[in-house]
UniProtKB/TrEMBL annotation:
Protein name (record): DNA repair protein
Pfam families xrefs: HHH_XRCC3_RpoA (PF26169), Rad51 (PF08423)
Keywords: ATP-binding, Cytoplasm, DNA damage, DNA recombination, DNA repair, DNA-binding, Nucleotide-binding, Nucleus
Matching PROSITE patterns: RECA_2
Signal peptide: none
Role description: Involved in the homologous recombination repair (HRR) pathway of double-stranded DNA, thought to repair chromosomal fragmentation, translocations and deletions.
Organism expressing this protein natively: Anabas testudineus (Climbing perch)
GO biological process: double-strand break repair via synthesis-dependent strand annealing; resolution of mitotic recombination intermediates; t-circle formation; telomere maintenance via recombination
Compartment list: Nucleus; Cytoplasm
One of the record's GO molecular function terms: four-way junction DNA binding
Family, as annotated: Belongs to the RecA family. RAD51 subfamily.
Gene3D superfamilies for the chain: P-loop containing nucleotide triphosphate hydrolases
Coiled-coil regions listed in the entry: none
Length: 337
């Protein structure tokens, strides 16, 4: 497909032609920084170019070009907004693939997800992706007050970023909230509204909180076959969005008790709980993280918190390790040894 077949600003098309990029599909095989260097276009022009190119290729699917989309960004990470936890994750969440964060109720999973919704809005040089987030709630209402508190604390917790940058970021305007009360509404959200936000470049992070709630409530134990089919359909939608838009997907998961003496490899050996939804779900996850509460109390200025531990259960690029953390006004922050 050539440039005469797409609707794009003539100035951008001229810059692309000067760079000797003859087809739309060539653009999708080049990373953002390389496109800026080759064409001399601004970051916003490059983003517009990639959205138009991606849309054009979806209308005329060839070979698996979308799998090559942003190939040069394979090492890009989304920071969690904490140097200690970023060190554990080698920079943060990978931009491609599904990451699961599981743990018991009240351990801090949602708070870490809210942090990521703010972190994604920073430029890439500060660990973000220069875009917004879409947050799908399946059980509890969205914690608006806690998000506002985290926004107010950004100037304190993000000392690595210029204060004028933080002041100019309208954080709350770029977190899109969706509520899914059942699997049908969740599927509509993933197939219609979320792709629209991604295609327009408004978001670059998808959060589902939580993945287990609907599958646990809508199926009985005897319906395991139908449940697994629905679960695989849901996973397919997540992987499609992550690949097509090179977007990190974070799924918060509940846990189930592990009976004493059972040989369960789905969670860390040090825990007596395991992530919900079993092996069918586990096989669809690229990175599995788990948070658990520890005994005792830790202090930070005038604040106190029960210690938590974020652990890597499995990931192709990470060692099985963990870091201790506390939950403060400014969010989930790792505790240095």
């Amino acid at each position: 497909m050539n440039w005469d077949q797409v609707e794009l600003n003539p100035r951008i098309i001229a810059a692309v032609r000067r760079a000797k990029l003859k087809s739309v599909r060539e653009v999708l095989c080049i990373s953002d920084p390389d496109l800026q260097r080759l064409t001399g276009l601004s970051h916003s022009d490059v983003k517009q170019l990639l959205i138009v190119a991606s849309t054009a290729c979806r209308r005329h699917p060839p070979t698996p070009v979308i799998l090559l989309h942003h190939r040069g960004e394979s090492s890009l990470r989304l920071s969690v907004g904490c140097p200690v936890l970023d060190q554990l994750l080698r920079g943060g969440l990978p931009v491609g693939g599904v990451t699961e964060l599981s743990g018991e109720s009240g351990v801090g999973k949602t708070q870490l997800a809210l942090q990521l919704c703010l972190s994604v809005q920073y430029p890439t040089e500060y660990g973000g992706l220069n875009s917004g987030a879409v947050y799908i709630c399946t059980e509890d209402s969205f914690p608006v007050r806690r998000l506002q508190q985290l926004i107010q604390e950004q100037s304190t917790v993000r000392s690595d970023a210029p204060q004028d940058l933080i002041s100019n970021l309208q954080f709350s305007d770029h977190v899109y909230i969706e509520h899914a009360a059942d699997l049908d509404s969740l599927q509509v959200c993933l197939s219609q509204r979320v792709p629209l936000l991604l295609a327009r470049g408004l978001v670059r992070l998808l959060v589902v909180d939580s993945v287990a709630a609907l599958f646990r409530s809508e199926f009985q134990a005897s319906d395991w076959l139908q449940r697994n089919k629905q679960l695989l359909t849901f996973c397919s939608a997540l992987h499609h969005l992550s690949r097509e838009f090179n977007t990190p997907v974070l799924c918060i998961n509940q846990v189930t008790d592990v009976f004493s003496g059972s040989d369960d490899s789905l969670g860390p050996h040090s825990s007596n709980v395991s992530p919900a939804l079993g092996l069918v779900w586990a096989n669809q996850v690229m990175v599995r993280l788990m948070m658990r509460r520890l005994q005792g109390m830790i202090f930070h200025g005038d604040q106190s918190s029960a210690p938590r531990r974020l652990e890597v259960v499995f990931a192709p690029h990470l060692a099985q390790d963990g870091r201790d953390a506390g939950i403060w006004r400014e969010g989930v922050q790792g505790v240095s040894s």
